[in-house]
């Protein structure tokens, strides 16, 4: 029986973008069932004492950019734009689409959509608040973008998105990416080694 990982993340997080390939490799290696759970950045920051990047002290902003530069170079992610045209942006409808695609129940297409939206922000200079961008990403993930978009606007998925964020905060999530397995929480793309130790 495969393990289940709850993957809490912001769809606009550069650190979630950095971990896409390595996390997917872990999921494949250990035959994981992954619940893709996009959560609301501003609510998580507000309720856990965090501060959005633009409001951080200049030293914290500089160190954040240094880390992104170092990690993107180390991982060979040459397509990453460290100052994307559409950051920050409203990810709420994208999050609802991921959940409507089965993100909370381990559906692979939901994971593909989540990854596509992160790449849209950090590689492709696209605005994931734009409905045409969302539909194209869903189509590329093997979903029917137009119908998924319409479904995601329903109150069921608005509530599901809010519930996912509240659940994340209850679990102890303070940022993105965060992985939860067997009640243990791992925060950060640089904690994937510890996640693998837990899996093995």
Write out the strand line-up for the largest beta sheet, numbering strands in chain order.
2-1-3-4
Number of domains: 1
Uncertain regions: pLDDT < 50 for 5+ in a row?
Answer: none
CATH topology: Glutaredoxin
CATH class, please?
Answer: Alpha Beta
Order of helices and strands: EHHEHHHHHHHEEH
**SS class:** alpha+beta
CATH homologous superfamily designation: Glutaredoxin
Radius of gyration: 16 Å
CATH architecture: 3-Layer(aba) Sandwich
Count of distinct strands: 4
Mean pLDDT across all amino acids: 97
Tell me, what's the shape?
globular
Relative strand content? 5-15%
N-to-C CA distance: 14 Å
Layout of helices and strands:
Blueprint: E1 4-9, H1 14-18, H2 20-29, E2 33-38, H3 41-48, H4 58-74, H5 92-100, H6 108-122, H7 131-140, H8 145-152, H9 155-171, E3 178-181, E4 184-187, H10 192-199
Parallel strand pairs: 1-2
Antiparallel strand pairs: 1-3, 3-4
Helix pairs in contact: 5-6, 5-8, 5-9, 6-7, 7-8
């Amino acid at each position: 029986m495969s393990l289940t990982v709850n993957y809490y993340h912001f769809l606009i997080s550069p650190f979630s973008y950095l971990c896409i390939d390595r996390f997917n490799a872990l999921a494949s290696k250990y035959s994981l069932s992954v619940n893709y759970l996009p959560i609301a950045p501003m609510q998580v920051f507000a309720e856990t004492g965090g501060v959005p990047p633009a409001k951080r002290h200049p030293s914290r902003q500089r160190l954040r950019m240094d880390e992104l530069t170092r990690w993107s170079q180390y991982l060979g992610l040459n397509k990453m734009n460290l100052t994307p045209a559409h950051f920050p942006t409203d990810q709420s409808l994208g999050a609802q689409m991921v959940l409507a695609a089965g993100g909370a129940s381990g559906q692979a297409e939901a994971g593909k959509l989540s990854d596509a939206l992160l790449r849209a922000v950090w590689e492709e200079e696209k605005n994931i608040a734009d409905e045409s961008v969302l539909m194209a990403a869903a189509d590329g993930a093997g979903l029917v973008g137009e119908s998924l978009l319409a479904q995601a606007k329903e109150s069921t998925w608005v509530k599901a998105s809010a519930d996912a964020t509240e659940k994340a905060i209850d679990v102890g999530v303070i940022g993105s990416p965060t992985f939860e397995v067997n009640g243990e929480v791992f925060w950060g793309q640089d904690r994937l080694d510890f996640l693998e130790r837990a899996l093995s």
